[in-house]
Amino acid sequence: MSSVNIQTEKKFSLQTFFFQWEWLLLLIFVMINIINAHLSPYYLNTFTLLDATMGFLDKAFIALPMAFVIIFGDIDISVGSTVALSSVVMAVLYNAGVPMYLAMLACLSVGLICGFINGILIVKFKELSAIIVTLSTMILYRGIAYIILENQAAGGFPQWFSFLGWGYIKGIPFILALFAVTALVFAFLLHKTTFGRKVYAIGNNAVASRFSGVKVDKMKVIVFTLTGFMTAVASLFLTSKMGSTRPNIASGYELDAIAMVVLGGVSTSGGKGRMIGVILSIFIVGLLRYGLGLINVSSQIVLIIIGLLLIVSVMISSLNIRMGKSKE
Amino acid sequence: MAENKSKTVLNRGSVQKIRELGLLGFIVILSVFIQCRNPSFLTAENLNDLITNTAILSLLSVGMMMVIITRGIDLSIGATLALSGMITAMTVRSHPALSPFLALLLGTTIGLLCGIVIGFLVAKTSILPIIATLGMMNVFRGMTFLISGGRWVSAHQMSSSFKHIATGSIFGVNHLILIAIITYLIFYYFINHTRTGRKIYAVGSNPQSARISGINVDRTLWLVYAIMGALTGLSGVLWVSKFASAQSNTAMGYEMNVIAACVVGGVSIAGGTGKVSGLLSGVLLLGILNNALPLLNVSPFWQDAIQGGIILLAVIVGALVRRNTDKKNLIGREE
In Å, how far from its chain's centre is CA B255? Predict the structure, then answer.
């Protein structure tokens, strides 16, 4: 009886908390823009702002599916290595004479396969937990990238490939346009489909959802495979932006992506979070970095600020939950 | 009924034993294989090198094992190590006469402070360990860059007595090895034979029942992260002294090696399980891999992949063994 009470209590305070959380994010977002505009006269300018999005949106493609993974209560720390491996495979294939579009297809398939392997291992060996599985594959995938390319760089992509990272469609950066579409699709998937409801159900109670007919294992494999695929998409954009690739690219991407998701109000204990928060926090982190870069704040201080932002945001959200509890 | 119970306990103990023996068997087979390929592997000189190079990893692993036993994880240790190493190296640069003992103390204190901050976040604000340490990792790494201004402290700026910390030896045994042995003796006693040590297991196995039975869960968690920090600070000084250079990106990603050593050594991420003896074999396996791959003329570019593959294999085999014994356990209970 008492456990039932606790459940309802939790749900009630959570609703109020989410209501507040996204407003808070919006407030931070506006504040960052005001401060940035104050600090640099060149900031509030459509061209600058659109340009700024090119700098950070490649990671955002990883953050979207990562939100699903974290709502499950799992985590995927192999994404940085998957970016490196898929990018290296693409570059090596292209340099071996494979047509570029086929090489890009290979890049996407490598991401898909990496994600699929993660998913299968996590489902087949439940006692290992996603942290351990993706920790091992993180070392493994990066290692394979090193085997393929050793310590060299590979590039020399065709001219049109740079369009992905730097191109514009009717004045809007291509990456921004594609991100907007992808984000809408992911938000729709999470909030308006049975697929999304199942993701929440598994995150709240995997055992109960299995008994109510949700194919938990299948769902997990799908989501991890999707993460691998989106990671390869991010890899395409990153490679296009840099013009060449090395086995050590994108180290630390996993942490950036996780930070974006958690700052967006998705709880790492699973079952809670909304897409709009994640999208807002992607822009908060990205524009904060860009703005601080504009006024020549060294990247080290940016590192500290983002670390503190992450902790403070989670602290506030847990305070909110506690206050909600004590009120009742 | 009583007999059944004792049988279950026995079985659970034997799971870990089988696992440990399996790992040891694997290490022996691996060593024999390496020895066949390169006879210089099992020489006193190389073994000494191997253990010296593994000492820092083993220090960090003890701390990480306790953290993981409480169901936590600490991703910040690479950054903490760099911060304490950098501050100590810069102090040594400006005060060459600083005694090595004080340098060790300084590094340990800095690490302890970092650990206390993380412990506070984890124990008092109910932030999940993975998030708290992820955030503080960024903060500590940024601080290291800021304090050093991105510059290195290199070998010629360090006093020889400081470099002697990691390179010197007593009775032919390297200081690093001695420090590791002393640490292991202390923590073996602490984890297995003190009340506080047993509380760590209780908190990890079941936080709720630990709380109900009167254990101060918050304080135990705080303590565990503080110890982890102190060990990391100590390792930071040893690291800088060993490699005779302090850089802002020292030990970046090293936390993954430490976690891998723990997991291979049978420490379960689900909390509550893990033994010092198992941990030692995990550390030894990683140490052998690092040492032997160059001896086998394996290209350095293959090392990561091989290491990752072996870690994956070790955890999967461990899981299968556990599953098998659990099944036998159940059948035993049915009878």
Answer: 8
Tokens at B57, concatenated? 């990893």
Q: Which two tokens stand for residue A128?
A: 């290992």
Cα(B301)–Cα(B292) distance, integer angstroms? 14
> What domain count does chain B have?
1
Q: Do residues B70 and B216 make contact, with C-beta atoms less than 8 angstroms apart?
A: no
Residue A246 lies in a domain: yes
- Asked if residue B11 belongs to a domain, the reply is no
**Plot region of B111 (φ>0 → left; ψ -120 to 50 → alpha; else → beta):** alpha
Asked whether residue B83 is domain-assigned, the answer is yes
Neighbours of A303 (CB within 10 A): 23
CATH of the domain at A100: 1.10.3470
The answer to whether A262 contacts B312, with C-beta atoms less than 8 Å apart, is no
Range 95-134 of B in CB contact (< 8 A) with A: 121, 125-128, 130-132, 134
ipTM over 0.85: no
Among A62, A19, A21, A64, smallest CA distance to A199 is for: A64
Q: Strand B169-170 vs strand A154-155: parallel, antiparallel, or unpaired?
A: unpaired
The span from the CA of B216 to the CA of B218, in Å, is 6
According to the model, what pLDDT value does residue A3 have?
39
DSSP per-residue letters across A228-253:
HHHHHHHHHHHHHHHSEE-TTTTTTH
Residue B77 CA, chain-centre distance (Å), reads: 10
Taking the CB of residue A124, how many other CB atoms lie within 10 A of it? Answer: 13
Reading the block at residue B137, the tokens are: 């990792």
Walk along chain A (328 residues) and give the pLDDT tens digit of each residue: 333 334 444 455 555 555 567 787 888 888 888 888 887 777 777 787 888 888 889 999 999 999 999 999 888 989 999 999 999 999 999 999 999 999 999 999 999 999 999 999 999 988 778 888 898 899 899 999 999 998 889 988 999 998 888 888 888 899 999 999 999 999 999 999 999 999 999 999 989 999 999 999 999 999 999 999 999 999 999 999 999 999 988 877 887 888 889 888 888 777 888 899 999 999 988 888 888 887 777 777 888 888 888 888 778 766 665 555 544 4
Cβ contact A270:A71 at 8 Å: yes
Where does residue A154 rank: exposed (0-12), middle (13-18), buried (19+ CB within 10 A)? Answer: buried
Hey, what are A38's tokens?
């104050």
Q: How far is A160 from chain B (nearest CA, A)?
A: 32
The whole-angstrom separation of Cα A69 and Cα A73 is 7
- Which residue from B142, B17, B58 is spatially nearest to A305, judged by alpha carbons? B142
Q: Do A139 and B308 touch (CB under 8 A)?
A: yes
Question: Between chains, do A127 and B323 touch, taking CB under 8 Å as contact?
Answer: yes
Domain span at residue B242 reads 18-334
Q: How far apart are the first and last CA of chain A?
A: 17
Q: Are B258 and B64 in contact (CB under 8 A)?
A: yes
- Neighbouring residues of A82: CB distance < 8 A, sequence distance ≥ 6: A110, A111, A114, A115, A141, A228, A231, A232, A235
Q: Which residues contact A2 (CB under 8 A, 6 or more apart)?
A: none
Judge: B304–A139 Cβ closer than 8 Å, yes or no. yes
C-alpha of B243 from chain center: 19
DSSP of B93-133: HH-TT--HHHHHHHHHHHHHHHHHHHHHHHHHS---HHHHH
CATH of the domain at B236: 1.10.3470
- Chains A and B: how many Cβ contacts under 8 Å? 139
Among B308, B256, B280, residue whose Cα is nearest residue B58? B280
